[in-house]
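User: I'm curious whether this sequence folds into something compact or stays loose and floppy. Could you predict its structure so I can see for myself?
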Amino acid sequence: MAEKTPHQNVTFESAGTEAHGYLALPESGSGPGVIVIQEWWGLTDHIRDVADRLAAQGFVALAPDLFGGWITHDGEEAGRMMSELPEEKGAELLAGAVDFLLGSEAVTSSKLGVIGFCMGGGFVLQLAAQQGEKIAAAVPFYGVGQGVPNDFSGVRAAIQGHYANFDDFYPVEEARKQEEQIRRESGAEVEYFYYDGKHAFHNDENPAGNYDPQLAKLAFSRAVDFLRAKVA
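Assistant: Here's the prediction. I'll summarize afterward.
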């Protein structure tokens, strides 16, 4: 039986307070750093599994807890919690996660990758705009409007987006406009993939049943290859 990926719950300083997260380490104990940003459901088993899967690929993966331990599978409650998270607070917490990961002896890279889903996909772009040279690669999956910056001029990371053609939460037309805005304002390397699926097609725990295993496998393999090329 294969040995499980070492993982642990961690605390780190963020905006003068104590924040929490889930840290997954590769079998070697060290590797390039990647931040994993949660959906509006909270720091769920699915997000922890994403961190574990990245660790199995050789990354040191940190999933910060944006909701302070709160988890739900109810869409209405999740929407309320997302709306109650001020974007500046989420950005501050994630900035603390960047400093924590870059300061870790386990992290071998001088810059980080960041990957996020739904609400987390929006905050991926916020973090890339906010942190500039500290972020080498940003991977938003079907990021909704929450957390998305108005201005992408601060982005220095290469960006690989994964969006759905039949997304009821974030229409594909908006994703295409965003792709062009990022390319125009940042001058960064930008590549968006569009899939014939629905919102949250990568989430095998999604209550709406939008999970598509073939699309999820393809998108995640692209993301891992991209992170390995840009961060490792």
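Summary: The chain is about 35% helix and 20% strand. The chain has a mean pLDDT of 90.
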